[in-house]
Amino acid sequence: MRRLLIANRGEIAVRVARTAREMGLETVAVYAAADTRALHVRAADRAVPLGDGPPAETYLSSARLLDAARQSGADAVHPGYGFLSENAAFARAVAAAGLTWVGPPPAAMEEMGSKLRARARMQQAGVPVVPGSSAVGADARGLAAEAARVGYPLLVKASAGGGGKGMSRVDRPEDLPAAVEEARRLADAAFGDGTVYFERLLDGARHVEFQVFGDGAGNVVHLFERECSVQRRHQKIVEEAPSPALTPERREAMGKAAVAAARAVGYVGAGTVEFLVAPDGSFYFLEMNTRLQVEHAITEETLGVDLVRAQLDVAAGAPLPEAWRAGRLVPRGHSIELRLYAEDPVDFLPRSGRVAAWRAPEGPGIRVDAGVEEGSVVGVEYDPLLAKLIVRAEDRAAAIARARRAVGAWIVLGVETNLSTLARVLEAPDFQSGRYATDLVAKLPARGGAGEAPDAAWIAAALAEGELPPVGASREAAAGRTPGADPWETLGEWRLGR
Question: Among 462, 448, 460, 465, which Cα is nearest to 490's?
């Protein structure tokens, strides 16, 4: 490989470009018209426009992406995550065009792309799965009978896709028909496949995933686990490694199950096997993501590896590093990742705007993988993930303390974000103790004490002065007007909802 087309946008495109350039590869970005000035475009050596239009006509268009590869002379394609990263037809089209696909074999993607098919394959491989059903039909009596067999509470889940789309909780039989109809509608709109099934809801369960990696020579290893239980709307917002829930014995058993899952589908490249861990310690296969994960950075930080480099090496035909194959990698310290989303911190719905100010935290043990910068325009057409804060320290308590300081120092103006939610997670006693489950965010105390948001003049004055207003300054004083009687705390304190 000598020239890599990155078929994505945002922070993952910037992340892949960084490693590719370190390896001496030329990088090619692609961009929709609205992303002409986006950060990922400048992060690459060259860029090819995909034209105007919605994502279906740009980043999700195999034809336009392959045409961009031809125009730029690229000989390899890295799909990042999201978009077409788990689309077997696109992977086959890349290979048919004579390009190197930086990802798993299309057959493995198809096998794991359907949750129902993946469940059946895992049962054959001896990997425990969450009790559930096969695809459910439309007959009301059949739905009721199948749900009764699985047991309430249950989840209605889409067989295709991920990210919590098409998923809903059902606690009572009378709510089942509406939940199934809604799940089918959302799944069909998001993935073009309205197939749904039932899965028993394990109350108090934790979400723990294992990073797996395979090469073309048949070697498959796991690179330990990541705890992903801090979620909202069934999507992760905080991850950590190692998991505070696993004993050495459970870690070994789950690691073996993850490797068995990957071997069962002839896996090559980076992938993630996700499990639910019940309060009694039993674990169950949930799904496999046949791509790099958003949270891959905490594995990199605790193991001192570069997973994107390994992806590119394996795609070029190299075996996994000998230390990986020999099991000599040992996690060191503790790492936490916090996802910064453009969203309302109360209802978690996406928000848009222009980033008027962007000051990311810095210092030892702090890494920020960002897809935006000051001046970036944030729309609602794409995933609202703006950046990821990754911290590492010698132990979990030190990592939490470092994360709290970093979140408090992060300045984002012009678009609403979930910084206050991240701060409240880090401050929650259940998180700090390590005894939490997937319902942590729902159990957080209501956000309060923030008052009204600063007005435009206050923000403009703060930016013009190049510094934040001092503690105790009123917003009128900050805007150059006569100080009022209503004191405001620093912008950071307002931002975190204190």
Answer: 462
